[in-house]
Specification:
Blueprint: E1 2-6, E2 13-21, H1 38-46, H2 50-71, E3 80-82, E4 88-90, E5 97-103, E6 106-112, E7 117-122, H3 130-137, H4 140-148, H5 153-170, E8 207-211, E9 218-223, E10 229-235
Parallel strand pairs: 2-10
Antiparallel strand pairs: 1-10, 2-6, 3-4, 5-6, 7-9, 8-9
Helix pairs in contact: 1-2
Bound molecules: coenzyme A (COA).
């Protein structure tokens, strides 16, 4: 494993996060396919853009490899299912927290033994229309602070990923409305008190951490836990991503 970072400490919610760059696979998924279930292979085949399909395959392979290691079973024995809202779960709930995200060529997967979690990764670079996007995803107070801080795309993406990670941890997904979730500044700081949609209450029951080590992407992980969140994250290279 490479690029490992460990911020673990006692009395925290600990998350293990693996990420990979699908560009390592060139134009063909190769040995990733053997790590996918039949439904995942079908979904892979239906994705039109090859880059999206590879990143999808990478994320699902990472979840299976990571869960297999944690549970001491084979990757294809990992029962990865989705609930009605689309939130991934490990069949039998032997590990309560599982989440994945893919964007551009990057993919990541995360597991937690003690809490439901959500992870989000965004690779998009600055675009026109940042102001309109900010008004859609930030609270009015956050929009004001974001503009006062210079209106940087990176700050907007930092807030986006924190909100999406929290909404994914809750299982609500972004349909719950990012603008109903106040994370502060942007860029958000974990110490800032959250205001959450009613379906996620209480606000003190959630923790998050921004991740700044996945290439140049904006990323965040969140947990349904009042304890501070710490993450151990590693980049997984192509050679480490085959069937054991
Ligand atoms: C989940 C969601 C936030 C994904 O956002 P995204 O940035 O496009 O994609 P990401 O790569 O970050 O995450 C995708 C993963 O999130 C997970 N996911 C899907 N729905 C989820 C939910 N409700 N809660 C938590 N995780 C969810 C899945 O594992 C999915 O992986 P897969 O598509 O490879 O199977 C977004 O699609 C969503 O909110 N969906 C919920 C329903 C919804 O709003 N639908 C829109 C109808 S117009």
């Amino acid at each position: 494993m490479t690029d490992a970072a460990d911020t673990s400490a006692a009395d925290t919610t600990q998350v293990t996060l693996w990420w990979a760059d699908a560009a390592d696979w060139g134009s063909s998924p190769g040995d990733l396919m053997a790590l996918l279930s039949a439904p995942e292979r079908d979904r892979f085949a239906r994705l039109r853009r090859p880059a999206d399909a590879l990143a999808y395959a990478c994320a699902h392979a990472l979840v299976r490899l990571l869960a297999a290691r944690e549970l001491g079973i084979g990757p294809l024995e990992v029962g990865l299912v989705a609930d009605l809202g689309g939130k991934p779960r490990l069949d039998g709930r032997r590990l309560p927290g599982v989440s994945l995200s893919h964007s551009g060529t990057l993919a990541c997967a995360a597991l937690c033994r003690t809490a439901d979690i959500g992870i989000d990764l965004e690779t998009s670079g600055p675009r026109t229309g940042a102001d309109r996007l900010a008004e859609r995803v930030l609270t009015p107070r956050e929009v004001g602070t974001w503009r006062a801080n210079g209106g940087a795309w990176a700050d907007l993406m930092a807030a986006w990923t924190v909100k999406e990670a929290l909404l994914k941890a809750s299982g609500l997904g972004i349909s719950a409305g990012m603008e109903a979730l106040q994370v502060g500044a942007p860029p958000p700081a974990a110490a800032h008190p959250l205001t959450v949609p009613e379906a996620m209450a209480p606000a003190e029951g959630w923790a998050y951490a921004r991740i700044t080590t996945i290439a140049a992407a904006a990323a965040a992980v969140a947990a349904a836990s009042p304890n501070p969140l710490t993450a151990r994250y590693e980049r997984i290279l192509r050679g480490q991503c085959g069937m054991p």
